[in-house]
């Protein structure tokens, strides 16, 4: 289910080129459906849409709106965001698949070892979690470094788009 989000503005000038989610004042009852049942077409929507969490990566996908008057710099920012979202989704899909597979192997190993009860305690699972994190520590560090660099790149591009919009607005003659 995709839901359109609102954006932050300062007067008539949109401050950030990204749309943000905000709480709905009169939230519907839980039995009602809000938003869209399927992924909308980016060319036909009027704003960015945020979808439900992906079952594999647990990340909420974005459908990024764009219009025909988009500047080349704004288009570069939008395409880079889409590319980074795909990279992030791919990383977490592979990570979660590996995590659940190793967790299942750990549970099977304990069941085959003939423990007195079939239930695995939280303490024994904490051993698995710790070993999984230790084993993937370097990969997580590299992911974080890459993630920070990509976010800085997006911030620089977003700031350039903001300045471009601001300068274009300043150049317009007042009527």
TrEMBL record:
GO biological process assignments: intrinsic apoptotic signaling pathway
Main location group: mitochondrion
Keywords: Membrane, Mitochondrion, Mitochondrion inner membrane, Transit peptide, Transmembrane, Transmembrane helix
Localization, UniProt: Mitochondrion inner membrane
Record field: transmembrane: 145-163
Pfam families attached to this UniProt entry: COA8 (PF10231)
Top-level taxon of the source organism: Eukaryota
Keyword Transmembrane: yes
The keyword Kinase is assigned to this record: no
InterPro entries named in the record: COA8
GO cellular component, one term: mitochondrial inner membrane
Membrane topology: Peripheral membrane protein
UniProt-listed PANTHER family: APOPTOGENIC PROTEIN 1, MITOCHONDRIAL (PTHR31107), CYTOCHROME C OXIDASE ASSEMBLY FACTOR 8 (PTHR31107:SF2)
Family as reported in the entry's similarity comment: Belongs to the COA8 family.
Protein name in UniProt: APOPT family protein CG14806, mitochondrial
Organism name: Drosophila lebanonensis
Lineage summary: Eukaryota, Metazoa, Ecdysozoa, Arthropoda, Hexapoda
